[in-house]
Amino acid sequence: MKSWIALSVVIITFFSGVAQAAEAQRPNVVLIMADDLGVEGLGCYGGASYKTPNLDAMAAEGVRFTHCYSQPLCTPSRVQIMTGKYNFRNYKAFGHLDPGETTFAHILKAGGYRTCVVGKWQLWGRHDQWVGTGSTPAQAGFDNSCVWQIEEKSNRYAEPGLNIDGNALEVFKGAYGPEMFADYAVDFIQKNKEEPFFLYFPMALTHNPFTPTPDSEIWTEGNRHKDRPIYLQDMVAYMDKIVGRISKTLEDEGIAENTLLLFTTDNGTHKDILSKMEGGGRIQGKKGETTDAGTHVPLIAHWPGRAAKGVETDDLVDFTDFLPTLLEATGVAAPVGHHLDGQSFLPQVLGKATPPREWIYCYYKPDWGAFSRSVFARDQSYKLYEDGRFYHVATDPLEEKSLDGKLDGEAKAAHKKLQAALEQYQ
Questions:
Q1: What single DSSP character describes residue 96?
Q2: Residue 87: alpha-carbon gap to chain centroid
Q3: Is residue 206 predicted with pLDDT exceeding 60?
């Protein structure tokens, strides 16, 4: 009898150890999304105005996507990336996330992941008719949070006003918001390294106001709220510094090889910013507009020992693709009946051959500012709007000349394909 008891203990211990080992092998996910920075903001995409050594190194060691497209404005992008759905399905107002929506945090939390968000929130409700009817971080599925702008709008940079773990707004004199976000993120990683976690970091940087950072010479002089576009260079450098700090933390804690690290941005650069490119070209930011300067964003994937190394891919990605990618990477299933518009780009990250997207779709109705509704489908070279405008964006990124009249060859085939894509959602 004693031998059977002893054997049972051994068996239970063995399978418990196997289960714990399997749990330990579940990959972590860190998704960093900077604010208001197109591809021209990174050196690895040919940008010459800013210094981004950490992101450039990530790209050299991982996978860089050359055709990733966001929505043109922040809330439309945030709602889309968090839910995996095109905006016509669930976007209700600027600064608003419907509390009835299922987010990537809800799904991963239900799948056994510890979830955390740090940075810019702005999803609780901005317009009078929507105030308080959106979502808090906890309502959106996050266990932990350190965020700017839930109920009240305060400083996001110097002397930030933040809500931490659902507590009331607190103003931190002498502090710098992005540094506090990074501190919280690092602490979350260190505390949760023994269990699978999902860290979502929608940065406050590099959104205007364009103000000094702690690394700016003027910071010690006390005028920390001075707003000048010249400080964007310092803000980009500090954003890159934070990315490097997160990456190093993963390495120092011994979990880099078990963590998928993704970096992107929510839309193009502010319209007041003109950035230089290698070779002498320049790009005027067009945040809020549907041209490439408003929607073409970086996407870098880093996963030591798993991701392809130093690979550049021109496969198409849009923001509905992130949630399917996270699910495939973690092995967590979407809830039964949950609709996903996107397609996982994990095979491209891992260097596996897979049929890429043939087109991406954009439904844009921001209900904010002077920006108007716009709907289009596109591939790497051509772009077709719902109203019939058709551009060869590979050679006409500013969309100055619509291809009118009779089309032939490649253009004709692309038009047919994109028209069929638009009709899927009409």
A1: B
A2: 16
A3: yes
Q: How far apart are CA 76 and CA 191, in angstroms?
A: 32
Domain ranges of the chain: 27-359, 376-423
304: left (phi over 0), alpha (psi -120 to 50) or beta: beta
Residue 24's pLDDT is 52
Please give the sequence-ordered ranges of beta strands (E in DSSP) within 74-218, or none if there are none.
114-120, 144-148, 161-164, 170-171, 197-202
Give the pLDDT band of residue 125 (cuts 50, 70, 90). Answer: confident
Place of tokens 């397609």: 343
- Give CA–CA dist 156/153, Å, rounded: 9
- 405 vs 342, higher pLDDT: 342
- 27-359: what CATH class? alpha beta
Give 169's DSSP letter.
Answer: P
Does residue 74 contact residue 35 with C-beta atoms inside 8 Å?
A: yes
Say which DSSP state 108 is in: H
Give bridge partners of residue 259 from the DSSP assignment.
28
